[in-house]
């Protein structure tokens, strides 16, 4: 099928007795290349009579003064008419197809006695996601006229960008009208080309009263082969740094490579490969490396600020042509959560773990337990060990100096229950230390201390039961006799303490001392083991 991409001028003006050439531009697809091209004139009845076509037909009325030249490799065919007459004025079609009702562009021809010669239509071809440079000669070096770029529609030319800073929302960050040169000419730079960018455009200058004769430009965007689509958005954090690569054609020869900041239709250069750095960015931006063989150069931006957010262009200049590519930088502010006096840790919001327990009060294990002296060594508690119970009212001592405490196995959940009256929150071998990530770990080697505690407790209980059997009626003084015994064992009644810590992701932790029991629960994947003391 014939491609729907066909463009050409909508208005032609010729001088009486003179000549003109009209170009029609089409996508150079196989279907278009070998299809019939035609030039016909509309009659008042709505019929378009063929004047000339690529199938070797020429109307007898125009014999000797009309010609058609097709250039399939460029995607254009040109119609030239000479010896213009007043009767030649009217509406014409240039098109592609087996009939004159196929794909076409309509235009109006005016024949005047003193017509000025219009500029030929300029053809610009680009690749999908690539960039193009359009040179717009104005012929007027005065700087008080507004430069514009618009796209021709059925009945009007829709403004896309102008030198006063206006940019259509669909072209934000990807079009630029350069300042006027000494000759009065200016350039229009467009990047990140899209398929819908193909079409007929006008560029020129417009004064307070009238506009100069605009330049017609046909832009064709080839959809294949397409350039690789590279990342268009970058993300950074306030105070951080960012490094990215700019790409250019490794086969090209460029006199300058640069980075500019696009804003409001202008793009001031921040730095280039010749050593220039904009004063406001000195010390913060650098072109760190360049690889001409691969067609890349790297840019580093340091000490990022919120105002750095926006559009940037990578550019490479070769004569009047400029290869450009847009990048949008997004700046984020990092959220900090205070962990203690004079300390703050950056945090990122994460979903809560299903195993996590919310508690009314969160306390650091290190705050409650204190720290264990460096260099201490003790064994670890097997996860399937079950031990005896500790009587109510016992106070657990501290870990002796020189002890190193083990850690809770990875992936386990330690449940710490609520303390009850008459118990203390500190027990031998149960000291915790806090890692740099803020998660509690069971200090190594609890077994020797626990065995010692159990032996002492068992001996005290045995002694107490023996005394009770020998001296009936002294049951009421059992509590009093136990206290000295507990004191001799290094144990003393303590105060109530509730010890809880917010678990890390995937861990639920609780520590309970009360009702004569102290227990750990190690929860793995679908399992739970309890150690009762």
From TrEMBL:
Region of interest (Disordered), residue spans: 340-436, 468-510
Alphabetical list of InterPro entries matching this protein: CD300_family_receptors (IPR050671), Ig-like_dom_sf (IPR036179), Ig-like_fold (IPR013783), Ig_sub (IPR003599), Ig_V-set (IPR013106)
Recorded GO MF terms: transmembrane signaling receptor activity
Composition skew (Low complexity), residue ranges: 368-429
Residues passing through the membrane, by range: 442-464
Residue span(s) of domain Immunoglobulin V-set: 19-96, 131-205
SUPFAM superfamilies: Immunoglobulin
Superkingdom of the source species: Eukaryota
Subcellular localization: Membrane
Keywords, in A-Z order: Membrane, Transmembrane, Transmembrane helix
Segments forming domain Immunoglobulin: 9-112, 121-222, 231-332
Matches recorded under PANTHER family: HIGH AFFINITY IMMUNOGLOBULIN ALPHA AND IMMUNOGLOBULIN MU FC RECEPTOR, POLYMERIC-IMMUNOGLOBULIN RECEPTOR
Protein name: PIGR protein
């Amino acid at each position: 099928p014939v491609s729907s991409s066909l463009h050409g001028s909508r208005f032609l003006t010729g001088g009486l007795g003179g000549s003109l050439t009209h170009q029609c531009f089409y996508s150079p697809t196989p279907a278009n290349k070998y299809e019939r091209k035609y030039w016909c004139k509309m009659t008042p009845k709505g019929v378009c009579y063929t004047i000339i076509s690529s199938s070797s037909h020429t109307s007898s009325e125009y014999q000797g003064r009309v010609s058609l030249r097709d250039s399939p490799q460029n995607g254009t065919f040109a119609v030239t008419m000479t010896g213009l007459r007043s009767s030649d004025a009217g509406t014409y079609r240039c098109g592609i197809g087996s009939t004159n009702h196929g794909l076409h562009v309509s235009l109006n021809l005016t024949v005047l006695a003193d017509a000025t010669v219009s500029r030929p239509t300029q053809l610009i071809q680009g690749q999908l996601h690539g960039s193009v440079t359009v040179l717009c000669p104005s012929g007027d070096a005065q700087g008080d006229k507004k430069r514009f770029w618009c796209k021709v529609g059925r009945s009007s030319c829709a403004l896309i960008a102008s030198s006063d800073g206006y940019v259509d929302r669909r072209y934000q960050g990807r079009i630029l009208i350069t300042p006027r040169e000494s000759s009065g000419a200016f350039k229009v730079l467009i990047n990140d080309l899209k398929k819908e960018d193909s079409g007929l455009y006008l560029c020129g200058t417009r004064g307070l009263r009238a506009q100069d004769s605009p330049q017609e430009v046909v832009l064709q965007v080839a959809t294949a082969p397409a350039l690789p689509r590279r990342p268009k958005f970058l993300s950074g954090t306030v105070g951080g740094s960012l490094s990215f690569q700019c790409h250019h054609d490794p086969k090209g020869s460029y006199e300058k490579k640069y980075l500019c900041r696009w804003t409001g239709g202008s793009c001031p250069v921040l730095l280039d490969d010749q050593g220039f750095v904009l004063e406001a960015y000195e010390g913060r931006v650098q072109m760190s490396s360049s690889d001409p063989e691969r067609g890349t150069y790297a840019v580093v931006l340091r000490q990022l600020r919120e105002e750095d957010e926006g559009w940037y262009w990578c550019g490479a200049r070769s004569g009047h042509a400029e290869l450009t590519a847009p990048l949008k930088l997004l700046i984020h502010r990092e959220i900090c959560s205070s962990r203690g006096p004079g300390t703050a840790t950056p945090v990122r919001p994460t979903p809560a773990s299903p195993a996590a327990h919310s508690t009314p009060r969160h306390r650091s294990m290190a705050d409650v337990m204190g720290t264990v002296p460096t260099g201490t060594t003790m064994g670890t508690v097997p996860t399937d060990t079950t031990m005896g119970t500790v009587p109510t009212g016992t106070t657990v001592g501290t870990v002796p100096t020189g002890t190193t405490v083990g850690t809770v196995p990875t992936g386990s959940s330690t449940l710490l229950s609520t303390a009850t009256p008459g118990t203390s929150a500190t027990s031998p071998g149960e000291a915790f230390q806090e890692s740099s990530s803020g998660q509690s770990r069971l200090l190594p080697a609890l077994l020797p201390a626990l065995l010692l505690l159990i032996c002492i407790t068992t001996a005290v209980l045995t002694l107490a039961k023996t005394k009770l059997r020998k001296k009936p009626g002294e049951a009421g003084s059992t509590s009093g006799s136990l206290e000295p015994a507990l004191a001799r064992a290094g144990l003393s009644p303590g105060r109530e303490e509730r010890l809880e810590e917010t678990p890390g992701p995937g861990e639920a932790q609780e520590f309970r001392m009360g009702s004569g029991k102290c227990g750990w629960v190690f929860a793995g994947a679908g399992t739970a083991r309890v150690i009762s003391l």
